[in-house]
Specification:
heterotrimer; A alpha/beta; B alpha/beta; C alpha+beta; A: alpha/beta; Rossmann fold; C: alpha+beta; Enolase-like, domain 1; Cytochrome-c3 Hydrogenase, chain B; 2 domains; three-stranded antiparallel beta sheet; 16 helices; 8 strands
Chain lengths: ~140, ~150, ~400
């Protein structure tokens, strides 16, 4: 493990991109920052700009209007960047996959490194997903 | 009976233009009106009776395009819907958004999903179709194919 | 205007079908106008609903909004029961009200925490969300999931609440009352919160009427409406409670209304638990064989206001037209009144005050102007501005 990867592993900064989601995943993401789950102890932090991010957490299905924005966010991040498809909608489109504005699940738009399924995923699932992602960095 | 007299009372106060009324069930009423008299009717419900505008539901049927403007009488706990029917070839009606801002978004939405024209709308910009579907495509019409 | 700068806020704000991009038109520090663009979250739920059976629609409407994930099935159930002319058994009514009120509690705590965060009080955020966890635990024990509960069906509820669960719910409620006292004290007695929120983002009664706003947004402007009382459904006419209103219409009044509503919710839940113990166990639904042709309207009071569903049926097993109006659809539009004339740092809390959902403000993160590429504030900087103002007030008070 190089020095760069060592620091990357200890401080994953996450940019949260909410597509056409129902908000459930988004609350659970905030929830893991609060005292009971507290992922900041692993160095995970939500950041406000994609330019600072090591991870893009994409929740919700992606509609036609979101699609170019997601690509734009992906292009703005410094590489390497990990993309996590979050929740049933992020992974497959969920109940909205048949909608008339659906533009495809996340992995058809940008390359995805990890999937965290669930509707919404439990905080434990989220922590497990993030820790598995950290283990891939070596 | 009580229900019947409640709606008849409201209908009598309405200016000319109501063509009929029905009690759908307890506390739910529909008043059929002519398209031209919508502004007058809505103004009476909103300004004189102080009913709260809830939302408008539009759909396409055999008769044409229909809109139900739902108003809430909070004191009586009832919903009074003004029902207009527009012909298939000319779905056009006056905008209520100049009377109350609550109608602003929903009218823009109805224009985009069903292609109903609202005359004199103060802000006739796109609300949700931008980037999602093209101008002139109306996904909630019966002949829409995805 | 030559001197006006545009600050885009958004676009991601996934409460319902309508996340927005707000454009604040500013002159110096003052917001002069506000415009919105939506459609980023349009999933075509109303269209999708037409291709689903009535049983499936429940799972779909539950996913309109994660925080109001009971209110939409609630309104839809009311609507379908109106069309089918059935009445759920009393036990089901009590369970429905319990789930509805628990949702209101967790939603109000969520709002309170985020409002605290936007004012620069992260402690309030952490505490409020910590106290919210036991409610979610209770949900998990009752329904099996923390957020989407899938409790509702036409004619009743899917799961019963029995024995141990009732005891646990009672204990959670009595614990929560103390925590609510603590938070109410912390918010109501803090001079800095008073300074930041009083007289900020004022909506008058006329504005509320004009924009047809509902829920705590309307009640904090002295407009006494609450569907639970005005057009009672479920068990709300079988229990004692009162509607909370405040006349001022500012952010503080909205916080006050929500905090006091928590006490009412706890009161309702406790009475419903009493009711549950009297009803025979297992009597949770009436069978509905078919849905006749007709139109129906259903409403329910969500944490943010009235949810309205309109369904037209034709005798088949899926809706012909399903119109949904979420409360934020009308509440969000009031920003045009509450933010204009405010400073940018106050706009954050004014936007948050109607509880559009945290994403509205949090999603300010993704902020750059698509058309001009101009350098503007991002979400964190806006929150930062707001925090600086709080610091300033603390300094001045000291």
């Amino acid at each position: 493990m190089g020095l760069k990867n060592f620091f990357l592993k200890k401080s994953l900064w996450v940019f949260h991109f909410a597509g056409a989601s129902c908000n459930n995943c988004d609350i659970e993401i905030l929830d893991i920052l609060t005292p009971r789950y507290d992922v900041e102890r692993f160095g995970v932090q939500l950041v406000g700009s994609p330019r600072h991010a090591d991870v893009i957490l994409v929740s919700g299905s992606i509609n036609q209007r979101d699609k170019p924005r997601l690509l734009e966010v992906y292009n703005q991040t410094s590489k390497p960047v990990f993309v996590v498809a979050f929740g049933a909608c992020g992974c497959t489109g969920g109940v909205f996959a048949e909608g008339n504005t659906f533009a495809g699940p996340v992995d058809q738009i940008v390359p995805v490194d990890a999937y965290i399924p669930g509707c919404p995923p439990k905080p434990e699932a989220m922590i497990s997903g993030l820790s598995k992602l950290m283990q891939t960095i070596s | 009976m009580e229900q019947q007299s409640y709606i008849e009372n409201i209908q009598q106060q309405l200016p000319e233009g109501a063509t009929g009324s029905q009690v759908v069930r307890k506390n739910r009423y529909v008043i059929d009106i002519r398209t031209e008299s919508l502004l007058q009717m809505a103004s009476h419900l909103y300004h004189n009776l102080r009913f709260r505008f809830i939302i408008a539901s539009a759909f396409e049927s055999k008769q044409g395009f229909e809109i139900l403007y739902h108003f809430s009488d909070d004191e009586a706990g009832s919903i009074i819907s003004l029902h207009v029917i527009m012909p298939h070839d000319k779905p056009e009606v006056d905008s209520l958004a100049n009377m109350f801002s609550g109608a602003n978004w929903i009218e823009r939405e109805m224009r985009e999903i069903l292609g109903i024209t609202f005359r004199n709308h103060p802000e006739p910009e796109k609300l949700l179709s931008e980037g999602n579907w093209a101008e002139g495509v109306y996904p909630y019409r019966k002949n829409y194919k995805s | 205007m030559a001197n006006q700068k545009i600050i885009p806020v958004g676009p991601y704000h996934p409460l319902q079908e309508e996340p927005e991009l707000f454009k604040l038109y500013c002159e110096g520090e003052t917001v002069r106008d506000i415009k919105w663009e939506t459609g980023y979250n349009h999933r075509g739920i109303e269209k999708l609903s037409e291709s689903k059976t009535f049983e499936q629609v429940f799972f779909l409407v539950e996913r309109i909004c994660g925080i109001c994930s009971t209110s939409h099935p609630f309104a839809f159930a009311n609507c379908m029961e109106e069309i089918a002319q059935v009445e759920p058994p009393d036990r089901a009514k009590y369970i429905r009200s319990i789930v509805g009120e628990l949702e209101r509690l967790h939603s109000h705590y969520l709002w309170l925490g985020l409002a605290g965060h936007f004012l620069g009080y992260n402690t309030v955020w952490m505490w409020a969300w910590k106290y919210r966890e036991p409610i979610l635990d209770l949900f998990e024990i009752i329904s099996g999931n923390r957020n989407s509960y899938a409790m509702f069906k036409i004619g009743g509820v899917r799961r019963d609440v029995t024995g141990d669960q009732i005891a646990l719910a009672r204990k959670t409620m009595s614990d929560l009352k103390k925590k609510n006292d603590l938070l109410t004290g912390a918010v109501m007695d803090d001079p800095v919160i008073h300074a930041r929120t009083k007289g900020v983002g004022v909506l008058t009664r006329e504005d509320v009427m004009d924009y047809a706003a509902v829920g705590p947004t309307a009640r904090a402007s002295g407009w006494d409406i609450d569907v639970r009382r005005d057009d009672p459904y479920a068990a709300y006419d079988m229990v004692e409670w009162k509607v909370i209103t405040a006349p001022e219409g500012d952010v503080f009044a909205k916080a006050q209304v929500r905090l006091l509503e928590n006490y009412e919710s706890i009161k309702i839940i406790e009475q419903c638990l009493d009711g549950l113990e009297k009803e025979p166990e297992g009597d949770t639904e009436v069978k509905v064989r078919e849905i006749p042709e007709g139109i129906g309207t259903g409403r329910a009071e969500a944490p943010r206001g009235e949810v309205f569903h309109f369904v037209k049926t034709d005798g088949s097993n899926s809706p012909v037209r399903h119109k949904i109006r979420a409360p934020s659809y009308v509440n969000i539009a009031t920003f045009r009144k509450s933010c204009v004339g405010q400073t940018i740092s106050d706009a954050t809390i004014s936007l948050a005050a109607v509880d559009p959902c945290y994403c509205c403000t949090e999603r300010m993160a993704f902020a750059y102007d698509w058309h001009t590429g101009r350098k503007i504030y991002d979400g964190n900087q806006l929150v930062e501005l707001s925090k600086q103002k709080t610091q300033q007030i603390i300094k001045n008070n000291a």
